[in-house]
Amino acid sequence: KAGVTQTPRYLIKTRGQQVTLSCSPISGHRSVSWYQQTPGQGLQFLFEYFSETQRNKGNFPGRFSGRQFSNSRSEMNVSTLELGDSALYLCASSPQDRLMRDTQYFGPGTRLTVL
Amino acid sequence: GEDVEQSLFLSVREGDSSVINCTYTDSSSTYLYWYKQEPGAGLQLLTYIFSNMDMKQDQRLTVLLNKKDKHLSLRIADTQTGDSAIYFCAERFTGGGNKLTFGTGTQLKVEL
Q1: B37 - beta bridge partners?
Q2: Which residue from A10, A34, A93, B54 lies 20 to 30 Å from B33 (Cα-Cα)?
Q3: Beta strand spans in B18-60 (E)
Q4: What is the pLDDT of residues A67-100, one digit of tens each?
Q5: How do A110-114 and A105-106 pair as beta strands?
Q6: Closest Cα in chain A, distance from residue B39 (Å)
Q7: CA of A94: how far to CAs of A27, B15, B27, B37, B66, in Å?
């Protein structure tokens, strides 16, 4: 099976703009989670989607949002970008089956730079 | 509460064993994971352990869990230069859905 894919891999934006990142989970996986990785804060959970519904949310401002489509693909959006939003954004999918229920498999990430 | 701590750096010689340690504070954690991150890459799942287990072995990897002390360790036998990376432990606690709480990461450097 193909792994988790994320597009684009690299992105440069300026302050005040908005950005949309895309994630395609492993085939058959129904849960998609998003994480932000920065040198200062480390890896932090943004949100999780399952069956097109946000099931869990981290401690991030409302500028960060996401959605999931019926094919389990997910997008996250950041509006009114700030310099501090520069980070590696990682997407993870999990099968939600009985054997490996919630183990998360990560994509390569999208490197966002805000100038 | 949610707090996962790791030492920042570990240096070993090729062929030696590496032991990476992690402490966590949430006693209701049900799953504990080890991930590896190489430069410029995402996270690679190495192994995981259920909280009702004490030990799990998978080829060169051995995970030990001490629930009393809330201590998790990852031992890599016969460490190779390709093992140089950042290693993260992560916990998923009961009632937290699929949210993972990660440690700060341990930079493992393997020297010849």
Answers
A1: B43, B86
A2: A10
A3: 18-24, 29-37, 43-50, 55-58
A4: 999 999 999 999 999 999 999 999 999 987 655 5
A5: unpaired
A6: 11
A7: 10, 34, 23, 18, 26
Chain A residues in contact with B96 by the CB 8 A cut-off are 56
Longest CA pairwise span in chain B (Å): 45
pLDDT tens figures, B33-90? 999 999 988 999 999 998 888 999 999 999 999 988 889 999 999 999 999 999 999 9
Bridge partners of B33, per DSSP, are B48, B90
User: Chain A 6-65, CB below 8 Å of chain B: which residues?
Assistant: 31, 33, 35, 42-45, 48, 50, 55-56, 58
Taking CB atoms and an 8 Å limit, are B100 and A58 in contact across chains?
no
- A76 CA to chain B: closest CA distance, Å? 16
Which chain B residue shows the shortest CA-CA distance from A108? B42
- Conformation bin of residue B81: beta by default, left when phi > 0, alpha when psi is -120 to 50: alpha
End-to-end CA separation in angstroms for chain B: 41
Q: Which two tokens stand for residue B85?
A: 């990376």
Return d(Cα A21, Cα A6) in angstroms, integer.
8
**What is the structure's pLDDT at A97?**
65
In the block, tokens 């430069």 appear at B39
Residue with tokens 């230069």: B81
B35: which strand partners?
A: B45, B88
